[in-house]
Amino acid sequence: MAIAAKLVLLTFLYLMFFSPSHRPRIDDAAVDRHLIPTR
């Protein structure tokens, strides 16, 4: 029972905080702006 509860909790935490829908989109232009800032 405890293992099932831990599995449910870990799945919930993954879906709430670490799922791909929460990751920012990064494109080539954003990388260029970040790595080569203009003055």
Q: What would you call the structural class?
A: mainly alpha
Give the mean pLDDT: 89
Number of domains: 1
Distance between the termini: 59 Å
Radius of gyration: 18 Å
List low-confidence stretches: none
Instruction: Return the string of H and E elements.
Output: HH
The rough form would be described as rod-shaped
Strand content: under 5%
DSSP E strands, number: 0
The level of helicity is 55-70%
Q: How many helices does DSSP assign?
A: 2
Main β-sheet: number of strands, strand sense, barrel status? none
Account of the protein in words:
The chain is mainly α and 39 residues long. The protein has one domain (1-35). It has two helices and no strands. It has helices at residues 2-18, 28-35. The model has no long low-confidence stretch (mean pLDDT 89). InterPro entries: CydP (IPR054636).
